[in-house]
Write a structure and sequence with these properties.
about 300 residues; ABC transporter involved in vitamin B12 uptake, BtuC; two-stranded antiparallel sheet; globular; about 70% helix; 4 strands; mainly alpha; 12 helices
Length: about 300
């Protein structure tokens, strides 16, 4: 129960960092890169600079937010597609982490592992932290102006712009938020492992898309559910853990299986969209189909 709940929480947080960008009609391929550079800065702060966690963690989170902001600036100011920007920045961040750390992990104290390794009644503290974050995200999308602007921007950017929404500002803030969630996930991973490993985030890209898509987040934007992300993380974790635990799929082929799972989820989502569009088309009255007056 403890292990599963912790994995669900981490997968959900990584997916949320992707989902906030998908919501506004973009994507963030650099979530893993942001996580890795955050981990290195966290390790430097704790081990090399001797800072306490109360200072090291905010610095690490600030790096993640700054990385997301840099993505957002390039996307909105230079009008470059988010796919190109975040793909490029993924390599930039991962190159920086390798150059700074030399590929060696940083040690962290036992006390830093309290959240990552602690539990209450068998439920991981990580799960509880992420549950609170998901509740906050759900509230943001349903009850705040910013959340509604994100959904409107992703649903139809032109219509949102005509209605007075600053779509560029909304996209910029979404990327900052994505960076924050990715850096928070990196901190929790370091707490779980009792080590700030530079390779943290290498597998996040496939996790972020798989969980978000399984949870119902639309690749076209404008649709997201915090509860759906939680359910997607649960399904993803149970499938991954179950297949490896019971040796149904060799670990070497796990990524191939997950790639197929993502493709299946996208196909199901697309079929659902096609069915919905057909129903709407049938429900619309045809032009000229009004009743003609009866001749006497």
């Amino acid at each position: 129960m403890f292990f599963i709940s912790r994995q669900i929480g981490l997968a959900a947080l990584v997916a949320l960092s992707q989902a906030v960008c998908l919501t506004v009609g973009g994507m963030n391929l650099s979530v893993g890169g942001i996580g890795s550079i955050t981990t290195v800065v966290l390790g430097l702060s704790l081990q090399n600079w001797g800072l306490p966690p109360s200072l090291a963690v905010p610095i690490a989170l600030g790096v993640g937010v700054a990385a997301g902001a840099l993505n957002g600036i390039i996307i909105t100011k230079l009008k470059v597609d988010s796919f190109i920007v975040t793909l490029s920045m993924m390599f930039v961040y991962m190159g920086l982490r390798s150059g700074i750390s030399g590929g060696s992990p940083y040690e962290v104290s036992e006390s830093f592992g309290l959240i990552g390794r602690g539990n209450v009644f068998g439920i991981s503290y990580v799960f509880l932290v992420v549950a609170a974050v998901l509740i906050g995200a759900g509230y943001m999308y349903r009850c705040t102006m910013f959340g509604r602007r994100m959904l409107a921007t992703g649903g139809n950017a032109d219509a949102a712009r005509l209605s007075g929404i600053n779509t560029a500002k909304t996209v910029f803030r979404a990327n900052m938020l994505s960076g924050f969630f990715a850096s928070l996930a990196a901190v929790l991973y370091a707490s779980r492992n009792l080590s700030a490993a530079p390779e943290t985030g290498d597998a996040w890209l496939i996790i972020s898309f798989a969980v978000a898509i399984i949870g119902g987040t639309s690749l076209k934007g404008g649709a997201v559910s915090a509860l759906g992300i939680f359910m997607g993380a649960t399904i993803f974790t149970l499938i991954e853990h179950g297949l490896v635990q019971f040796k149904q799929v060799p670990p070497e082929f796990m990524r191939s299986f997950l790639g197929g799972l993502i493709l299946l989820a996208v196909m199901v989502d697309r079929i659902r969209e096609i069915v919905t569009e057909k129903r709407k088309t049938k429900a619309r009255p045809r032009p000229g189909a009004q009743e003609r007056p009866m001749r006497r």
